[in-house]
TrEMBL record, chains B, D:
It comes from Solimonas fluminis. InterPro entries: MetI-like, MetI-like_sf. The keyword Magnesium does not apply. Its main location: membrane. Belongs to the binding-protein-dependent transport system permease family. Residues 81-261 form the ABC transmembrane type-1 domain. The chain crosses the membrane at residues 84-108, 115-134, 200-219, 239-257. This is Lipid kinase. It is a multi-pass membrane protein. Gene3D superfamilies: MetI-like (1.10.3720.10).
From TrEMBL, chains C, E:
It comes from the Bacteria. InterPro entries: AAA+_ATPase (IPR003593), ABC_SmlMolc_Importer (IPR050093), ABC_transporter-like_ATP-bd (IPR003439), ABC_transporter-like_CS (IPR017871), P-loop_NTPase (IPR027417). This is Lauroyl acyltransferase. Residues 5-242 form the ABC transporter domain. Keywords: Acyltransferase, ATP-binding, Nucleotide-binding, Transferase, Transport. The keyword ATP-binding applies. GO terms for molecular function: acyltransferase activity; ATP binding; ATP hydrolysis activity.
Length: 328, 275, 264, 275, 264
């Protein structure tokens, strides 16, 4: 029996993994395909990806940008097995005492440097004709950004939910930009090791099966759906109302068909180009990277972007399609 | 007659009152600060009112968690204390073995002492990523962080303590015909144990620190895990009781270790009181 | 019967400072040598050489005609001024220890009948030094005099051929000291031991020894106080009271002492 | 003749070789591990080859950063060392003042010693949010974290050291007509300073720890900042040299403090060597 | 001239253990009292009461007819067996310190001419005790005897009325000790000081004092050794050699000593 370990961290779009594991949904699907899957919670997001990259996990939840800059740039051939959602307001830029994005000029901005927050900020600045040199970035750990924002020193911040909602609740705070303005660019994925997946596709099938069973369960507004969401809310440290509010700013792909459509759309390669450019400019592709095309990215149907001979991040619709077609 | 301040001693009662004073002042300062902030913003989470703290304590300590059915505070404490105990035990054992070897055997000392000295300067936090990768994210890596954090200092400390044993004793044991092993086992080891407890007491604080740091990064339960989990929401009503609880635990462990040492090694403490 | 100990032209140097020079001495079994001399003149260093802790820089040291072992061993017992006993063992265990380590080479611990027997022997030894009533106490619960009795019992249980005493009574008050003198003399007479005892008190040396060795620097150089080492300047068989000689020695030693301490 | 191992001492040369051995072994183990991993995955970032490490060192130490134009390692070191120096200075001052007061004046001791004892058990990491709010997010809060992390232990330590001064000295000073202030100033303080340096040396490790923790949470530069930043893309080629560099810095600071103490307080060290 | 010191029916108890009982003593200015007694019988405790560090549990202690101050002060100098000098000051500074603290109440430091003058006074004092050649050394660079000379100089610079010495020569070797005796006698004769000196060595007590005080427990209770305290059992004016008396005292003290130490 093959054994696999996948890691997850607390984030609205990933809470279903915890629920699926707690409720035995993952075990059910793993049993069906004759494998074992251990779902491990990691407190620190970056650490979970590092662990995955180093080989401690066979799968891990992460955003599209981190999938490119950490495992792919680290030479670990990775497959984006499930495209769970994209952020549709879940990440945002907030200002204290100001209400317009262009007022950010000259300020210190607290955010998790080199994360999707950083990317969001760069995209936001573009929209008002500013560049990163017009502001000063202060690296702030996600666990402390709420406390940091409560201090007078901090006047601007970029963060994600549930931290964003905490921050927005503070006095004199305005949300001046959020990810709903760049829909589909910040994507939350379940990424698995390509070699492991190729060796035993049962891993992909079991994970996809468990995921979409959970999706179906939680998307309903009946008692069972509410109970599921309440459990996820509790596990992420909030209540049902708070969790639903976070879901509202998340474009969940509850139906596998929607996810397939998104993954096969032309927007995805374009988004990934932007992400690669940002990553390269910030040195995230490693010191050996000569251009933003240094790493190849594969898409459904054999399309690629970047260096074709070095495809390390692969988007696939294969397993989501099986789910959509009810073949799991 | 007026005495110099260095010659004036408070009575027992006065000393007790004086000792409580700073704690009371802190409490008052907190209550005042909390009130000021809450008046300005009733939703303020930073300095919750005493009543909210009490409610939070009740919730975490007495009400079963809805999801897991556990009493959260006790489950967290149990998880953390297990890790801590494992870390302390391994560190003590390592320190004892290394301390005895480097303290007693000149060749081993020449080989290991410089390395241990450098090792004790390595900031363990900085190599956390490596630790997690080598030892995984399970209980092991947390224990290893604690061990890595405190063992080098304890090793150096114990080596020092072993070397401080009067050389007269070692000579004496040799003139009684003991070989190195017997000297280790019957003369040096028993005298090192109470010193090990001393060293352990000194390193309790750092051990808690590393425990919390490790739990902050990867854990599913534990005191540090909880603090970092709820820190995202600035839930000071949970954090503050946890901090007080951790402090209390550290304090009690320190007391307990001292008690154990006094009970198990009376000769050590008699000697100390004389000196 | 040949000589037990032969010291031939022994020098001891630490780096450039000479502690002992041209030491010559022959001691027969059963002698009681007391050693006096001013502080820092190398008495303890000489004892360490007899123990085997230090080797001579030049010259030879023979025990029973064979080179002195390079380590302390059970044939040469020692009592220091302090720290001679094991603080973590009871009085009885302190003495039993010496029997256990040779009778149980691996563990250094005896069990059952062997243990009972060793403890009885130790208790008998302790009774001899007047500690029969304090077997279960820890050393920290004993007075200084009792601790030194314990240290002596501990050494004697091994039946050493030589007993080395380094100012064993220096920290005791004079009354207790007289009792210890009686004890040591008694044990020496009963056992036929060879004893070397360092003392600061010349009178004590005269009172106890059969032979008095005075360590002193025969040449003093104010420019380089460590240029010349100490040697044995008097080597006397004693047994009578010689007040004039005592004064003479006291005078010589005091002069060296003043010299050394003022030129530091 | 065969000697007991406790009696066998290596010569100077042998000791030096032995002392280097563990370092060499570590280096070899690293090189081997690195090679194994790189053969499996040439892009592996966890244990970079020696050559990559060298390249990274060159890059961070000698080439101006593309974005900021600074020499990264030196800029980071300068930022961190400033914070560290400020933290150590404040902690030392606090420890000195409190240690002297609690060590010498019984009434102050009764009032403060229990509080300091409890304070030294509080895990400072856990109360970071409060620190932020009170001291802001700037340099101040980082310095405060260092101070909070090490000062309570140093205070206890110094109190202990002051109380260990032979009471004979204080009595003597009084019989010479000195009042409490003069005794403090001329007898106790000068003798406390070398002990303060000792205490500082012991607390260098923890101070670096808190520095790194503070920089990991919010900073724009610094050694800890860099380590936690590049951890994002698992750039061990940067992290490892930084860890070695921090260790070296700690080591050098320790040596320097010892040197200062020997130079400024010769009487203290003469006494120690005798004892 | 009245009595300098009057001790009337003084008791000293620590909790339930009685250290001193029914102490009575009157000392005139200029006497040299040596105090002997077995270890632990309260000699140091008595000195601490004279210093003002301890008050009596019962009874009165008068200095010049007034109650003893509750703190040490510059009229009563002290020399301990060890730790009497400041290790962080040079020899000269150690002695100058006593002048500085009274001449500069705020800072405890003199500058300019005042400083120079104080240093000259201190140097003169040091010359008297034979340390004129070691002014700039630290105490750790001095031998034990030189350290005690320094401690004496330090005390004498304040011209105290009473000098208290607690086994000042206990750690010195016998030759050096004789020199120190000569020094103390010289200083005492020149200055007209009143001296209390504790010693373990009865002969030393006889040799130096004008008056010998023997502290001893008159009643011994094996069940409760601390039930009865010590008091002054002999109070002798001396000036002659009295070997029989010396032996008698030695015998009495030794007996107490044995008793106390064996019943611990
Ligand atoms: N290991 C050593 N290295 C260098 N010098 C040493 C060493 N051991 C002893 N000495 C020196 O040798 C001299 C003699 O020392 P030793 O202890 O033998 O004197 P002692 O006669 O026993 O004095 P005391 O009466 O004070 O015990 C001293 O000057 C001491 O400093
Ligand atoms: N602060 C104290 N509390 C309780 N007991 C004390 C205290 N100080 C002294 N003692 C006791 O008082 C007794 C006398 O002590 P003291 O030091 O005066 O004896 P001593 O005659 O000076 O002895 P030594 O010759 O050993 O110096 C001892 O039994 C001691 O334990
Ligand atoms: Mg000696
Ligand atoms: Mg005394």
């Amino acid at each position: 029996k093959d054994k696999y370990r996948v890691a997850w961290t607390i984030y609205v779009g990933w809470m279903p993994w915890d629920y699926a594991a707690q409720q035995g949904i993952v075990k059910k699907w793993a049993d069906k395909y004759g494998i074992e899957i251990e779902v491990v919670q990691v407190n620190d997001y970056v650490e979970s990806i590092n662990q995955y990259t180093a080989g401690a996990f066979d799968g891990c939840v992460m955003t599209n940008m981190d999938a490119l800059t950490i495992p792919a740039a680290g030479g670990v051939d990775s497959t984006a097995l499930i495209v769970g959602d994209f952020s549709n307001g879940n990440d945002g830029v907030v200002l204290k005492g100001k209400t317009a994005l262009k007022d950010i000029k000259g300020q210190k901005v607290n955010l998790v440097e080199l994360s999707v927050s950083h990317y969001l900020l760069a995209r936001a600045l573009e929209t008002v004709g500013l560049a990163e040199k017009d502001i000063k970035v202060v690296n702030t750990s996600d666990a402390d950004i709420v406390a940091a924002y409560a201090t007078p020193d901090v006047t601007a911040a970029v963060t994600w939910n549930p931290l964003l909602s905490e921050v927005r609740a503070m006095p004199k705070t305005a949300l001046v930009f959020d990810s709903s303005k760049i829909p589909g660019e910040i994507i939350d994925l379940m990424v698995v090791n390509t070699a492991k997946l190729d060796k035993n596709p049962a891993l992909g099938k079991a994970l996809a099966g468990a995921w979409y069973e959970t999706m179906a369960l939680m998307s309903k507004n009946d008692a069972a759906g509410k109970a599921a969401r309440s459990a996820m809310a509790k596990a992420s440290g909030t209540d049902l109302a708070g969790f639903d509010a976070q879901l509202a700013s998340t474009k969940m792909f509850y139906k596998p068909a929607d996810a397939v459509a998104f993954t096969t759309s032309a927007q995805l390669p374009a988004t990934m180009q932007k992400v690669a450019k940002f990553s390269f400019e910030h040195g995230l592709l490693g010191e050996g990277a000569s251009s933003e095309n240094f790493i190849g990215i594969g898409y459904p149907g054999g399309k690629t972007s970047g260096d074709k001979s070095k495809v390390k991040l692969r988007f696939t619709d294969q397993y989501m399609k099986l789910a959509a077609d009810g073949k799991l | 007659m007026k005495k110099r301040v260095i010659n004036r001693f408070p009575g027992q009662g006065a000393a007790a009152v004086l000792g409580l004073l700073p704690f009371l002042l802190l409490l008052l300062a907190y209550a005042w600060g909390s009130q000021v902030r809450l008046e300005a913003n009733p939703e303020d989470k930073l300095l919750p009112a005493m009543s909210s703290l009490a409610a939070a304590v009740e919730r975490v300590a007495l009400e079963p968690n809805r999801r897991t059915g556990e009493l959260q505070l006790w489950a967290d404490s149990a998880a953390s204390l297990q890790r801590l105990a494992a870390g302390l035990a391994v560190a003590s054992l390592l320190a004892l073995v290394t301390g005895l070897a480097t303290g007693m055997v000149p060749y081993v000392r020449a080989a290991l002492a410089p390395f241990v000295r450098v090792l004790s300067m390595v900031p363990p936090m900085a190599i956390l990523p490596i630790l997690f990768i080598v030892f995984g994210l399970g209980e092991l890596s947390k224990v290893v962080l604690i061990v890595l954090g405190i063992a080098p200092c304890m090793m150096r400390d114990l080596q020092q303590r072993v070397m401080e044993l009067p050389s007269e004793q070692l000579v004496k044991a040799q003139t009684l015909g003991a070989h190195s092993g017997q000297i280790l086992w019957r003369v040096v080891l028993p005298q090192t144990l109470p010193r090990l407890i001393d060293s352990l007491r000194l390193n309790l604080g750092p051990a808690f620190l590393f425990l919390i740091a490790a739990e902050a990064i990867a854990a599913e339960s534990g005191l540090g895990y909880r603090i970092f989990l709820v820190r995202r929401y600035l839930a000071m009503d949970t954090i503050l009781p946890y901090v007080v609880w951790i402090t209390l635990l550290a304090f009690l462990m320190d007391l307990a270790l001292r008690g154990v040492s006094r009970w198990a090694f009376p000769w050590f403490h008699q000697g100390q009181e004389r000196a | 019967m040949g000589a037990l100990l032969e010291v031939k032209q022994v020098w001891k140097e630490y780096g450039s400072s000479i502690v002992l020079e041209k030491l010559n001495l022959t001691v027969k079994e059963g002698e009681f040598c007391t050693i006096v001399g001013t502080s820092g003149c190398g008495k303890t260093t000489f004892l360490r050489m007899l123990l085997g802790q230090e080797g001579p820089s030049r010259g030879t040291l023979l025990l029973d005609g064979k080179p002195m072992p390079a380590e302390p061993g059970p044939d040469r017992g020692i009592v220091f001024q302090r720290y001679s006993v094991f603080p973590h063992m009871s009085v009885l265990d302190n003495v039993t220890f010496g029997l256990e380590v040779t009778r149980s080479r691996l563990l250094g611990r005896l069990f059952g009948g062997a243990r009972r027997k060793a403890r009885e022997e130790a208790a008998a030894m302790l009774a001899q030094v007047g500690l029969g009533h304090a077997l279960e106490r820890y050393p920290s619960e004993l007075s200084g005099g009792m601790q030194q009795r314990l240290a002596i019992a501990q050494a004697l249980i091994k039946k050493p051929r030589i007993l080395l005493l380094d100012e064993p009574f220096g920290a005791l008050d004079p009354g207790i000291r007289a009792d210890m003198h009686a004890l040591v003399l008694k044990l020496w007479k009963e056992s036929g031991l060879t004893i070397f005892m360092i003392t600061h008190d010349l009178k004590e040396g005269f009172k106890l020894g059969t032979r008095l060795l005075v360590f002193d620097k025969p040449r003093l150089d104010a420019q380089a106080p460590n240029r010349y080492g100490a040697t044995i300047t008097y080597d006397l068989a004693i047994g009578r009271d010689e007040p004039a000689l005592l004064d003479e020695i006291q005078g010589a030693v005091t002069e060296t002492s003043r010299f050394i301490h003022d030129s530091r």
